[in-house]
Amino acid sequence: MHEQEKAPLAQAASPDLAASPYAVEMRDICKAWPGVVANDHVNLRVQRGEIHALVGENGAGKTTLMNILYGLVRPDSGEIYVNGERVHISGPRDAIRLHIGMVHQHFMLIPPLTVAENIVLGQEPGGPLAVYDRRRARELVLQLSARYGLPIDPDARIEKLSVGLQQRVEILKALYRAADILILDEPTGVLTPQETYELFDVLRALSRQGKTVIFITHKLREVLDLTDRVTVLRRGRNVGELVTRETNQAEIARLMVGREVLLRVEKRPARPGPVVLRVENLHASSDRGLEALQGVSFEVHAGEILGIAGVEGNGQSELVEVLSGMRRATAGRVTVTHASGEQIGKTYDITSMNAREVRLVGVAHIPEDRRGTGLVLSDTIENNAILGRERWPRFAWARFILRLGEIAHWARRLVREFDVRTPSTRLPVRALSGGNQQKIIVAREFAADPQLLIAAQPTRGVDIGAIEFIHRRLVEQRDAGKAILLVSAELDEIRSLSDRIAVMYEGRIVDIVTPEASEEELGLLMTGGRPSGASREEQAQATGDSGA
Amino acid sequence: MALQTAQPRSPTPPALETRSTAWLLWLRRVGSGLGRPLLALVLALIAGVVVIMITASGSLIDRFNAALLAYGYLFVGAFGNAANLSFSLVNVTPLIFTGLSVAIAYRARLFNIGAEGQFAAGTILAAIIGLKCSTWPGWLLVPLMIVAGALAGAVWGGIVGLLKAWRGAHEVVTTIMLNWIIFYVSDWLVSGPLQAPGQADQTSSMPPQTNLPKLSVLYNQTLGHFLPTISQPEQYIVDISFLFALAALVVYWFLMTRTTFGYETRVVGENPRAAQYAGISVKRNVVLVMALAGLFAGLGGTLQLMGQYPYEVIGQVFRNDTTGFDAIGVALLGRMTAIGIFLGALLFGGMRQGGSLMQLKANVPGDLVYIIEALVLFSIAVQFLPVIQQAIVKRFSAARRPTVVAALAGGVVDLDQEPTNGAEAPMMNDQPLPETDKAALADGQGQVQTPAQERQHQQNGEA
To answer: Which residues of B touch A109 (CB under 8 A)?
Structure first.
C-alpha cells in the first residue's frame, strides 16, 4: 500500500490536463510469473477516444497487461500514464478513481439481484441513515441507460437476462462508476453474432462520445470491423502497433503467431461413404420444459462434415445433448451405423442410451462448454484424459481397478500428439490456458477412434494457432472416414469446414445447403426466412419428416 | 511503424525440467497436504499456551513453565507409555471409522453430519443380534454381528443418499434428523425391549464369545510363541478392532485412488455436469457413497461394542457421544486422505486420553484439549491460514522473485472477483505454464478476496 501515497490520483482524473494525446500509456511493463514471463517490457499507447485492439494468442500476456492497468496485478517494473500523468495503480479502487472500467470475460454479476442493484453495487445511492434508496438507484440507471443509448430494464433479475444483456449491464456498471477508459476482455466470446453486432454499435457510440475503449480479442474480423488501432503481443512482448485501416487479417495473424497462418482451411472435396448417423423426427424438451426440438431429421455420412448453423438457442445445444446421451428424446429415433472397423455395417439404436453407452457405440463428443461440462478442472490432465472412458478395459481391470500406468502413458501420448503445452500431465487442468484445455478434450475424443464425432463449438474461446490446429484435425478425421457433426455459432467456421450445412431455426432444420450458399442466404435461413426458389431435396425431406 | 520488435532484455526464467517439475509437484502436494493442518495445530498449541498462562499463577516464567509442563503431561498421557498408548488407540479406532465415513461422503461433496447416527445404527443392530442369539457359537455370531452392524450403518447412510438423489433433500438436514431418530430408538430399546433385568437404562453385556480379543492377548497367542511375550497383557486394552480400522484406511485409500468408483465419485463431487457428460449416474453414485459412508461408521460402532468394556449399550450414550462429530474435524484435518485421517484421529484420540493425566498432574483443566481441538478446527474452517502462510512465504521470497515457492503458496494468483465467479476464475488464462495447482488456487482466492471485499467496503464508505 506504500505506493498509494505517491499516487497523484486526484490530479490525473481531471480531464483538462490533457497534454498527452494518449488516454493510457504503459511503458516497459514487466511481469513474471514463476516459470513464465507474462509481460516483457510491453508498451501500450491508447489514444483518447479511440477503439484500440489488444490482440495476441492465449498466453501472450493481454489479460495480464489489462489486469495490471486495472490494478488486479502489480507489475514487477514499468510505468503507467493516464492522460499524461504518471500514476500508481495498486488496486481496482485506484483504477476506478482514474476512470478506468473493466468488463471481464466472465461476468461479475450477482444473478438473483436486479439490474439496478448490480449496477449501483458498491456505490449505492443512500438516503438518510445510509439506507439503500431503491427508487433513486432505478432513476440513475435509467438516466445512464438513456444517456448512452443502452436500453435495459432496471428491475429485471440478472439470471433472467441473456448473455448479451448481462454484458450490457457490465458496461453500464463501468459507466456508472464514471469510466472514461473501458477495458473489455474478450467480450464477444460468449455472444451470438447478432449480440456481437449490437455490442459493436454500442462501442462505436461510446467512442463517439469520447470514451476510450481497449478491446482484447483474438478474432481478427472483429479487429478489422471495429477498431482504430491494434497492438499485437506475442509471448509477452510487443510485436506490432498498427493502424487498422492500413493492415489486414493475414498480417495481424502472422504477427500474433509468428509465422504465416492459413486462415482458410485447406481441404479436398469430401468423399462421403455410407450413412453413419441417422436422425429421424427427433423431439426433445429444453431444461425449461419447452419443446426445443420439434421433429429434426438429417443424416451424416462417413467422410463428411455436416455443419449445423443457426443463431444460438434454436435447439442446437439440445440436439447435441440428445445425440450424445445427455438428454432424453421425447420422440423420434437416432441410429449409428459403423462404417469401418470390426463391427462394420452394424447399426445401433442410441435414442435412449446414456452418455456412457453412446460412447461405447463409437460416438465421441466435444461439448460446447469445456470448463463446465467437458473437464473436471480441479483434476489432473491424466484423469481428464479418460473422462467418460474410465471403465474401458484399456484403463481399468474388471471395469473397477484403474490401470494407472496405462492412464499416465495415454495422457502423455495425447499431450504429445496434440501439442498440449504443459510441463506435466499431473497438473490440474485448471492451470492450463483455454486453448490447451480444449486441446485435451479434442485429443481425448479424437484418440478414441470414433465412428461419429460430435463437435460443438470446438474452437470457442481458443486462439488462432489452436483453431488452425483443431480445424486441421477435424478435416483429417473426415478424410480418415469419420462422420462429423459440427455445431458452431461461428458462421465462418461452419462455412469453411462443412461439406453440407443444415440450418436450424426454432427447433427445426429449415434447410440443408451447400457451403457455397451466400452469407445472406444463410443469414436469412437462420432468422427463419426462406429464400424464394430454394426448394431442395433435403428441404422437402425435412419438412416431410417434421410433418409426420 | 508497422513493426516494433522488443529486445529480450529481461532474463528468461530457467526452463523447468520434467524431473524437477515432477518433484516439485510432489513436494507441493505433500506441502499442501500436511503444511496447513500442521500449521493449524501449531497455532492452536500456541493459543493453548496463552490460555494456560492466563489461568496459571505466579511470575511470567512460572506460567510459561506451567504451560510446558501441561503439554508434557498431555503428550505422556497420550503416547508416553504402552498402556497410555493403548488407551489412546481405543479412542482412535472409532474416530478412524467415523472419519472415513465423513471423508468418503465429502469426496462426492456431501457433508455427512450423520456419522454418529450411522455409528449408533450399527451398534444397535449388532447389540440386538448379540442379545437375541446369545447362545450361538462365537464363530458364527461374531461375523454375523459385524456384518449386520456394517449393513445397518449402510442402510442408515443409504437412506440419506436415496433422499438426496430422488427427492433432492439436503444431506445435512436429513442426516441430523436421522441422527435423532436413531438416538431415540436407542433410548427406547435400552429402557424397554433390551433393558437388562434389574438394571437401569442399559442392556445386558454381549455374550462373552463375541468379545473381541485384546491386541496384546492375540500377540501372545500367536507371535508370542516365537518372540518375547507381553507380561500382563490385560492392561493393554486396545483390541483387534484397531487392526480393522487400519485395514479400513487401506481400503479407503485403494477405493478412492485406484478404482473407477473413486474416480467417478470425484467427478460427481467436483463437477456433476461432467459426470453427466461422462455417463456417470450422479444419483446412483450419491446413494452408493452415502451407503459406504454409513457402512464405515456402522462398522466402527459395532466393533467398539464388541471390543471394549462394558460390551453393552447404556442409555443415552449416543446423544452424549461426540465421536461422529469429532470425525468431521478428523476428516477435515486429514484433508480426506487416508494417512491424514489416521494422523488426525491419532491427534484427537490421543489428546482425549492425555487430557486426564494433564489435569491430574499439571492441574490444568482437561477441557483445554477441547479448546485446542476447537482452535485447530477453527483455523482450518475459516481458512485464514493460507493468508498467514502466504505472508510468510512472501516475506522470504520477496528478494528472489519469481520463485516456485511463491507459486507453492499461490503467490502468483491475483484476482479480484466476487464469490459467484470464483469457481470459474479465469486468472490463469494467459499463462501457458503456470506453476499452480488447485490448492494454491484455492489459497489465492481465499487470500485475495478478502482485500477485494475490503475495497468494496471502502467504496461503500466513500459513496
So the answer is: 420
A317, A509 contact by CB (below 8 A): no
Does the pTM of the predicted model rise above 0.90?
no
Q: Which of A74, A124, A376 to mutate to test the interface with B (most CBs of B within 10 A)?
A: A376
- Cell 501420448 locates to A413
A contacts of B451 (beta carbons < 8 Å): 91
Reported ipTM exceeds the 0.90 cut: no
> CA-to-CA distance for B285 and B282, rounded, in angstroms?
5
B317 Cβ neighbours under 8 A, 6+ residues apart: B186
**What distance in Å separates residue B19's CA from the closest CA in chain A?**
9
Task: Please indicate whether, in this complex, the C-beta atoms of B263 and A390 are within 8 angstroms of each other.
Answer: yes
Residue type, A232: V
Question: Which residues 122-141 of A are in CB contact (within 8 Å) with B?
Answer: 122-124, 126
Choose among A480, A545, A534: nearest CA to A508.
A545
Which residue type is seen at A532? S
DSSP states of A108-142 as a string?
A: ---TTSBHHHHHHTTS--B-GGG-B-HHHHHHHHH
CB distance B99 to B330 below 8 Å: yes
pLDDT (tens digit, 9 = 90+) per residue, A389-425? 999 999 999 999 999 999 999 999 999 998 888 888 8
Q: CB count, 10 Å around CB of A71?
A: 24
- What is the arithmetic mean of pLDDT over A26-49? 87
A74 close contact with B: CB closer than 8 A: yes
Specify the residue for cell string 491427534. Answer: B347
Chain B closest-CA separation from residue A399 CA (Å): 7
CB distance A169 to A118 below 8 Å:
yes
Instruction: Specify the pLDDT at position B19.
Output: 59
Rounded Cα distance, A2 and B306, in Å: 65
Q: Give the nearest chain A residue to B259 (CA atoms).
A: A401
Amino acid at A214: I
The verdict on a CB contact (< 8 Å) between A401 and B258 is: yes
Whether omega before B402 lies within 30 degrees of 0, making that bond cis, reads: yes
Residues contacting residue A160 through CB under 8 Å, at least 6 positions apart: none
Cα angle value B204/B207/B211 (rounded, 5°): 115
Shortest distance between the Cα of B94 and any Cα of chain A, in A, equals 28
Q: Helix H segments across A14-151?
A: 62-69, 92-97, 115-120, 134-147
- Contact residues on chain A for B431, CB-CB shorter than 8 A: 33, 36, 38, 59, 64, 433
Ramachandran region of residue B10, left (φ > 0), alpha (ψ -120 to 50) or beta? beta
- pLDDT tens sequence across A345-397: 899 999 999 999 999 999 999 998 888 899 999 999 999 999 999 999 999 99
CA distance A282 to chain B (A): 20
Bond from prior residue into A515 cis (ω within 30 degrees of 0): no
Tell me the three cell numbers of residue B157.
Answer: 447412510
**What's the burial of B33, exposed, middle or buried (CB within 10 Å: 0-12/13-18/19+)?**
middle
